Structure formats: structure tokens, C-alpha cells
Amino acid sequence: MKHIFAGAALLLSAGAALADERPSQAVIDAYLAATFGKAPPEWQARIKPDESLAVCNTTRNTPSSAESEAMLKRESARVSYPADGKFLGDWKKGYQVANNGRGGQFSDAPNTVSGGNCFACHQLDPKEVSYGTLGPSLAAYGKDRKYDPETIKDAYTKIYNSMAVVPCSNMPRFGVNKVLDEQQIKDVMAYLFDPESPVNK
Hints:
Number of domains: 2
Low-confidence stretches: none
Largest sheet: none
Distance between the termini: 61 Å
Helix content: 40-55%
Number of helices: 9
CATH superfamily of the largest domain: Cytochrome c-like domain
CATH architecture of the largest domain: Orthogonal Bundle
CATH class of the largest domain: Mainly Alpha
Shape: globular
Radius of gyration: 21 Å
Strand content: under 5%
Mean pLDDT: 89
Order of helices and strands: HHHHHHHHH
Number of strands: 0
């Protein structure tokens, strides 16, 4: 029995040591380049991290205070707000965007309209039974926030560029990366904030 415990201890210590031996960023970059080296240029561009994502990768999503501050400043400057000053579109179309997980796949036909796939990470409509929990529940989002204009602008910022709000956020940067266009984001905003939206019922 002692030999079994000793062996288990050795395995555990070896596993911990291996976990600490992470490949360097240079090794990871070289692997990605070799893997996607023959892909079309537009696909290669998608795997090249921008400055903020590079920081998140090298720090394993734990940037220093200085790096976080620089990231928030850098990403905030990339947010483009609606020229007409209106942040809310059509909540019914917003539901369609939130419930659509298509887009960004190599098999997509040209001009495929991407969705936000919001239900993959969030609860939205309280009656919806299928949703992810990686992100917080957004049920009653507008109702709980009393439809405050400043809060609406903050939510637009988060959808457009999540790293302008939370450094190394897990949430996709829908606007900056052109996953969703301005009107789609407005429609999702309406789905979150419109009093008539199922989210707020």
C-alpha cells in the first residue's frame, strides 16, 4: 500500500511540473504559422493577434495593472458610436442576431450574415430554456437598470469592444472585429433594453 501511495505522489508531482512547463509564445506563434501557413491571406490575418490580444495571450489573461490601464485606453479609442446618437434598433431583429450562431466559418458562402450567438453564453429571455452560463444572466437587463441612457451607452461599448470595459474579456469584440455591424448591435441593444422585449418581461 505504501508503494501505491508513493507512486501516486510521484505522478501528482510530475503532473504539476508538466503543467508549469508551458510552451513559450514564440513556440505557439510558430505552430500557428505552420498550421495555417497555406490558408488564404484573409484567414491568416484572423489568427494574428492585435496588441491587446497579444498581451492577453502572453500573460494568460492576467495583465498587470499598467498593461490593463493601457489596454482600456487603447481599446476605448477604437469604439465607434452611432453618428445619429441612437443606440436602440428593433428588438425583434435583435433576437434574431442574438439567436444566430452563423458566421466566420470557412464553409460560409460569401456575404453570409454573422450572428452574435449571445445565447451561447447568456440567459436573455427568462422563458428560454437553452442558454450558456459562461457570461452572466442578462434577463431583465433593461428593466433592472431602469433604461438609463448612460447605462445604454456603456452596454453598447461592451458589445462593440468588450476589452474597452474589461481587460482580456472572454466576450468577443463584435464591433471592432466586424463580426456585427452597427445596425445589428443597435438591434441587440434593443433586445436588451426595449421594455417590450421578452428580455424585460
